[in-house]
Amino acid sequence: MIEANDVRPGNLVWYYDLYMNETVFEVEGILEGFIYSSTLPKSKLSLANVHPLSLDAGYLHSFGFVRGDRAHGEDENVFSYKYNRNDSVYVRDQGYSFQFLAAAPGQLIPYGQPVVHVHQLQNLFYCLTGQEL
User: Fold this and answer.
1) Would you say residue 113 lies in a domain?
2) Are strands 29-31 and 66-67 parallel, antiparallel or unpaired?
3) Within a domain: residue 6?
4) I want to staple 68 with a disulfide (CB 3.0 to 4.6 A). Which of 7, 30, 58, 74 is the partner?
């Protein structure tokens, strides 16, 4: 189950469909205990039946994050996303969670709480950059 204040339009979440398959969908709206999406069977689903999607390196890659390249002296566990000509967003794969990193002279410093779900990454990225993933 997911809380209404944890998600916003554009977030990816999942539910069990009629055949008990985990089905991913994009939130289009939230109102009075329901999540709305035109891809849902009745266009809405109770929050009690919606679940957070676990974040993994595959989702980072699909959003446009690039893994560090050891051949260039980069940490393979750090993913970067260039969102403007000067700045990037950095996220470290800690195995059980993903930690946002701030660029400082010669190093990357962890900040904030680690994220474990796709919607958390999407929400934090939006807060930092004003752009959707």
Assistant:
1) yes
2) unpaired
3) no
4) 74
- Total number of domains constituting the chain: 2
pLDDT digits (tens, 9 = 90+) for 55-94: 999 999 999 999 988 888 888 999 999 876 677 899 999 9
Structure tokens at 26: 């994009």
Return all residues near 5 (Cβ < 8 A) that are at least 6 apart.
none
Q: Are 65 and 77 in contact (CB under 8 A)?
A: no
One domain, residues 35 and 92:
no
Three-state secondary-structure class, residue 77: coil
Are 60 and 79 spatial neighbours (Cβ–Cβ below 8 Å)?
yes
Domain for residue 99, yes or no? yes
- Picking from 64, 85, 65, 83, the residue whose alpha carbon sits closest to that of residue 74 is 65
Range of the domain at 63: 57-129
